[in-house]
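YM 10:42: 60S ribosomal protein L20 sequence, as discussed on the call
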Amino acid sequence: MKPETSRQAAFSKVNMTIPMTKEYRIHGSAMPTEDNPRPQVFVGTIFTKNHVFAKAKFFKILEKKYKIKATKGLIIDCKEIPEPSFKEVQNYGIRFVYRSRSGVHNAYKECRAISKCWAIDHVLRELAGRQKLKRSAVDIISVDVVPVESLKRAKTIEFADENVEFPIFTKIVNTKSLLIPSEYNPSD
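YM 10:58: structure's back
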């Protein structure tokens, strides 16, 4: 039988305190040849889990748009863009394309989050829950900070007010404030 600590460590595999999605800036081009010794350099911003998925998605876009396959391509630079840590919630508008069972669709979603990666993570999880989409079926086109006046979706407008209040349905008693003498406490 394994000790208690190893079972607890194996229970939670996903850390929900950091977003799964990261932003990568990739520079790539076709391989230099005798006919084209200085090929055009392409730059892309990709939102994925890690750099391996980012490179694969970058080459997928290059092959689709410019007919440059991964075997004939070259990655010049792949950097993770560090996420600035904001302390306040912002409104984000995300344009994306997704492939479903019925075809390819353009879509726009708004959400409130503390950073771009959190906003994209929120939208990807919502699409997975509502429409059974995998992360690989969604291509992010743009992520923009949207001012409150320009919001379109009612769900986002509802929480964009500065004086929004949330009701407390059940008040939970703070057990630490209750003083229980040690002579009556059964745990001692």
